[in-house]
Amino acid sequence: MQPAPRYRADWENVMRDRQRSLARIAVTGIALACVADVASAQFPERAIEFIIPFDAGGGADIEGRLLAEQMSRALGVPVVPINRPGAGGAVAYTYVKNAEPDGYTVSWNSNSLLTMSNLGNVEFGYEAMDHIGRVEFQPMVVAVAANARWADLGALLDECAAAPNTLRISNSGTGSATHLGALALASAAGCEAVHLPAGTRRRNATILSGEADAMVAPLTGALNLVKARRFRVLATLSPERNAVIADAPTATELGYDVDFDLFRGLSVPSGTPAAVKTALADAMTQAAQSEPFMKLAGEVGFTVAPMPAAAFEALMQTEDTKVRAIIESANLLSSGTR
Prior knowledge:
338 residues; 11 helices
């Protein structure tokens, strides 16, 4: 219906003003998009925060700092390691999730990104961040003191089954990947153990002091004491043996259905521009394949295996299902989880 003639001029003015406003909005949107594209194209222009969810001095910290150093070389700006430990990784992951999605805040992640959400430490899951890719994976090991009475894993687990809730297994914290590895092993063996959340710094000490009978740890967290002949590795929880500790059998070889590797990779806030993520992924891969990082991998036993974002997200989906099942079977699943 057309307006009456006497209102036609006013109507046309209103329509012209509306069209001008829409045009201004469109131009502004295009301008903002262009600014974002230019910013992405110039990335990086300043230092990048490399957030490590665990204490200084542990395996995750040592690897992360070396990776950050090599990424600095690839990107031409400082990539600065910052430790933000606490709540099984929740402190660090929450910080990164809430950061500006501009590529200047990067998280060094692991299975802890999955465990902390299923435990209810945070109200978000791994899907709440964008993921750059996997850097490496490594076995979880079952270790005891060098003079411990158990000759092999079977002897340890037989004793656990015969005397429920007496065998003490140390881990890095409730809900940590080391805790979940111990839970999965005990479940596969049909035994009930006492799980000691000692923390990353104290975990090894509990074995040396006798406070714990055994521990589950990443290979990188136990290897120095294995080489010093103060620890013995009874088995790994990986599907295949590790070349650095080739004499250590897998739990699967010994008849225990456990497959639980530790992975490490990079994540950024959701909404980070694609060009920025590509730049970070390229730097991550260069750093992972650098001579210093490959040398460390050979010395401490992790496998460098860069994985692009899509494949890494698929891996996390699979591992999240596995983590959730372990936590649920141990009655640790939070009612508020996804």
